Amino acid sequence: MCGIVAYLGDKQAYPILINGLRRLEYRGYDSAGVALLDGDVLTIHKCQGKVSDLEAHVDGRSHAGTVGIGHTRWATHGPPNDINAHPHQSTSGDLALIHNGIIENYAPIKEELLTRGHVFRSDTDTEVLVHLIDDIQRTEGVDLAEAVRLALESVVGAYAIVVLDRKDPDVMVAARKSSPLVIGIGDNGEHFVASDATPIVEHTKNVVYLEDGEIAVIDRRQGLKIRNIKNQVKTPFIQELEMHLEALEKGGYDHFMLKEIHEQPRSIRDSMRGRLNLAKGEVVLGGIKDYEQKFVQAKRILIVGCGTSWHAGLVGEYLFEELARIPVEVEYASEFRYRNPIINEDDIVIAISQSGETADTMAAIELAKGRGATIIGICNVVGSSIARVTHAGSYTHAGPEIGVASTKAFTAQVTVLTLMALMIGQKRGTISGSKFHRLLNELDVIPGKVEAVLRNEAQIKYIADIYKDATNALYLGRGFSFPVALEGALKLKEISYIHAEGYPAAEMKHGPIALIDEEMPVFVIATKGASYEKVVSNIQEVKARKGKVIAIVTEGDSVVKGLADHVIPIPETPDPFVPLLSVIPFLLISYHIAVMRGCNVDQPRNLAKSVTVE
Ligand code: G6P
Asked: Which end of the chain is flanked by fewer CB atoms within 10 Å, N or C?
């Protein structure tokens, strides 16, 4: 949700910023802009649209400077237009600022600043910051860093900001609260600042993750200095990035989404690596070792997340209840945080987040932590805010997910939840030894089975072509497959803009059945297992009303084949592992329908990957 990138060094900043903005574009693509300092000349270019629009806009205009900031926006306050694009500039023209987050008390600050002669040009909440910093600089006679610190003392909300001052062109000031910021330290005094490490990794592997409430001053003469908002000096903790550049490229695929769908055999395998030990017959999750006993003794598990991560959490509910016999409640983080939820000290709260930055999930964690619960994180982005605030956790190791619609992150989250449920179930004695070993062996071969499903892509594409003009779709599943039905529907909505609903198959007759006619595609997960016969009956109910049925079935199934319009076979696997296979055809169907409809698959309209506002 808004991407920030900044550079100070001995190279030209503009190409570095543009490249960085391209990497961060998944965070928002309503507008883009840069501010460059060439000596004391400050140049700002910004416009509505994507980074490519910004490049076209800048083409032929001056863009020199070895210091610069860049921004790609996901609009919150004010429409996506040229004026509301960042960077924003102070009335004097001296300061330029970029921001990710929301300033909640911007209205009273703006009122006060207006009376003091500041001229506002945009509708954004952000603009108050640049005027406020400028005002403090002038009235208090302090330097940029101190003015930023004083300004942030009176601000309520979430922010990651970077500010430049034409009067002091060798300095760049960055600060964060609730929104992420990473600083890269390169050679020859080069420094980078970004919302995440993706724009930095091609320049340096040495990074410092700024903590909440910290202000970084990057000075060409003195290097990086960090202090907090209370003016206490902090020692920068330099870490080495494990990210590889190839993971951020499309690698020959047309879209990141397609690449990420095809990466799943690898990403699931990586999420199990070193954790599932067939030889010893055990699951080891090193990241939660210290909390294992609490987990084993937990009376209740709460799972919080948003979007696709919430769907993975719902699979987690079925897994923990089935395998570990612990009651589970799955909560939308946004609802949980604004209720007065009952949280006990012996509750385990599992927070799931691909980005590790989702504002609502973060707030839900803080609430639960404050009430004494143990928080276990399942995050994909290493070093992310959620990964750092949780007591313990297990990373998903899916690798960077760039496509805005989540794909491989979901299966990696479900893989980690499966490992957790198996491990806790074994330790609680709720799974027999023989069943445990059988399940471990089955889980171990899942990546190969995912590969087998991916080999059906041509058939799935053929089905996509038939239904690409649908205006509505239903997704049905029962038990472990119900969350997958929700995820399938979400994927279709997100990237192809077709209205779709996911339902428990049996609930169809309580409403959605009224929608079924010969125009309505109904995607059903009808694999062999506990609720197979019941789902077959549901398919018959759809066919009796002339709906079109596309069923995901177990290889070799002939019953559903005789009923459905199309079947997509997946290899046989125990019920708890079906989601890891049955979601794959849904991802491919949505992808191909979206491409056939001419949609921007990697950057669907109005969405952003990392939602750092409420
Ligand atoms: C956004 C993304 C979704 C994602 C959700 C939660 O809506 O577009 O793909 O599932 O946020 O994000 P998280 O990073 O917390 O998993």
From this structure: C
Q: Tokens 């808004």: give the residue.
A: 2
Kindly list the catalytic residues: 2, 609
Cα gap 38→36, rounded to integer Å: 6
User: CB 19: neighbour CB atoms within 10 A?
Assistant: 16
For residue 613, what pLDDT is reported?
67
Whole-structure pTM value: 0.85
Sheet holding 472-477, edge to edge: 499-504, 472-477, 521-526, 548-554, 566-570
Report in angstroms the alpha-carbon separations of 95 from 142, 146, 215, 219, 517. 14, 14, 17, 16, 60
- Any residues with Cβ below 6 Å from ligand 1, and which? 306-309, 353-355, 358, 361, 404-406, 607, 609-611
Contacts of 70 (CB under 8 A, 6+ apart): 4, 5, 6, 17, 18, 20, 21, 32, 33, 34, 35, 98
- 385-422 per-position pLDDT tens digit: 899 999 999 999 999 999 999 999 999 999 999 999 99
Nearest residue to 319 (alpha-carbon basis) of 578, 554, 585:
578
**């964690």: which residue's tokens?**
365
CA of 605 to the centre of ligand 1 (A): 15
Identify which of 179, 304, 334, 355 to mutate to test ligand 1's pocket (most ligand atoms within 8 A of the CB). Answer: 355
